[in-house]
Amino acid sequence: xxxxxxxxxxxxxxxxxxxxxxxxxxxxxxxxxxxxxxxxxxxxxxxxxxxxxxxxxxxxxxxxxxxxxxxxxxxxxxxxxxxxxxxxxxxxxxxxxxxxxxxxxxxxxxxxxxxxxxxxxxxxxxxxxxxxxxxxxxxxxxxxxxxxxxxxxxxxxxxxxxxxxxxxxxxxxxxxxxxxxxxxxxxxxxxxxxxxxxxxxxxxxxxxxxxxxxxxxxxxxxxxxxxxxxxxxxxxxxxxxxxxxxxxxxxxxxxxxxxxxxxxxxxxxxxxxxxxxxxxxxxxxxxxxxxxxxxxxxxxxxxxxxxxxxxxxxxxxxxxxxxxxxxxxxxxxxxxxxxxxxxxxxxxxxxx
Amino acid sequence: xxxxxxxxxxxxxxxxxxxxxxxxxxxxxxxxxxxxxxxxxxxxxxxxxxxxxxxxxxxxxxxxxxxxxxxxxxxxxxxxxxxxxxxxxxxxxxxxxxxxxxxxxxxxxxxxxxxxxxxxxxxxxxxxxxxxxxxxxxxxxxxxxxxxxxxxxxxxxxxxxxxxxxxxxxxxxxxxxxxxxxxxxxxxxxxxxxxxxxxxxxxxxxxxxxxxxxxxxxxxxxxxxxxxxxxxxxxxxxxxxxxxxxxxxxxxxxxxxxxxxxxxxxxxxxxxxxxxxxxxxxxxxxxxxxxxxxxxxxxxxxxxxxxxxxxxxxxxxxxxxxxxxxxxxxxxxxxxxxxxxxxxxxxxxxxx
Lengths: 352, 352
Prior knowledge:
Strand content of chain A: 15-25%
Number of strands of chain A: 17
InterPro entries (chains A, B): NAD(P)-bd_dom_sf, ODC_Mu_crystall, ODC_N
Protein name (chains A, B): Ornithine cyclodeaminase
Order of helices and strands of chain A: EHHEEEEEHEHEHEHEEEEHEHEHEHEH
Pfam families (chains A, B): OCD_Mu_crystall
Oligomer: homodimer
């Protein structure tokens, strides 16, 4: 009924279907590598970002969070929920969407699903950390917890670190079956294991990504030998950890953003002044990563807004010239900015 | 290429075009009244809301803000920018969109344009305040500043307070012409004035809504006589006020949320402990509003997240059974929540 909105009023929207189409169009590993490159580039200029803590709205059954950040040119935020009980109701524990806007005029330039994109960026982040911290020539990863992140983690470690085999374990054998089936034909050698102890045999990288919201011990102290890299994904909110404290005390610990990780990560189990290294400083060459073949390195991953920003910026470039977005009529854009009312009135049926 | 997403994955989206269609479908005043009713109902239960301050990202040219709130059942937030220099570039100074989500599972249930909806809720809020504070039987409003809010304010005061005439003034006569033209046929008697002094003649309600981002004096002390209601809209961020301090000292001041108004409103000119009344307490019957015919009442309006929440909840109801929304494929929703990767893989062209 109204005349077509102008270009500035239309925001490119990437639906779930578009996101899946883009992954198939680019290829999974290309997409992971693209996001990883962008994360590394953004971590190198870490100090140019606004680092606001997430804004959380808690309820007895879950949390809804807004995670904003800005580099002064672009502004991004992610909406994400966490509802552990959702899975029992056939819903996703975590769903997300995100937005990128132009700081110079405040107009959004991208709206996108971010459930899948978050899975990709979380895996890309783990891969970037492992590239800098894991023992040279690592070929085998133990993947403990075979839920929604497991395949993403496995393929990111293949794409970014060059692993050739994954050893899967989950308390629910059906999850392991699902993960093994999904990884068929990806080029990874997959070994299904009956216990965490079996899964870690010969693995240089130990990834933990389980879903229990409680202090659990997925890896006990005696399971983690000298020289490995521990990639701890699942300890990511207050009251949820996966590693025995002994492991933390024997490890060199790397984090995204200490202020957030001390509350949400594995290191919530440690004294608030326990030394940690910020991963961006390793990537920027300001601090060393792994210092010896016998060192245990630990990436205590909780997920930070800058990683989402990197993924959003990657996506904005990646969809150019593809059919994987549609224009969304999200912004009112009257010819005369002072005449919002007139725009509404002229859209009436009698004015058509 | 993929199978259709399930209902839970689809979020109703109200575009700018839909919003304009809905306004014409319901009628302007019905819509204002509906939002006002919802604001009053929510202000009556003020204490049941989470009141987070807005999360602002400032740049030299503007601000991008997220305004979240929740009543424990629903969660809402608004994205809104403020870029005063946009108007010179033919862009909106303020654009906005908003979202409503179910607190019990974190799933969004409504995404909507909010530039127009914010104009409606701001006017509805002013109308609600005037209904409780303006002198009984007020028939005339002076509307000083004839920009994007002016028609909305005028029609809200007609719908909610029963005014019959508006007296328009703007430093730019073109804005006054635009506003007068738009109000033709609405049933309001419109008088175009050459000065603020002319505009306030005989007016029981004085509304100021100008755009200058500076300490301006739109109303000087001697212009405001006994018994009027001042509806101050334009003083809404640090460094931007419209009223001479003398007016504030002679008025009984009503605000939405003191913590925010003391930073952003007219009362940023006063001592931080200057007494103010929270409007919700008047609406809930806990505090009195106007106490005499000679009292000057002042609503120092800055806009608060709960008003956006009210508008979002109104909209969610209002679009039911209408064509004024489309389902947006925003949320990934695999059949098995743990099998996000499998969902992506099965969406591939070879699986179609």
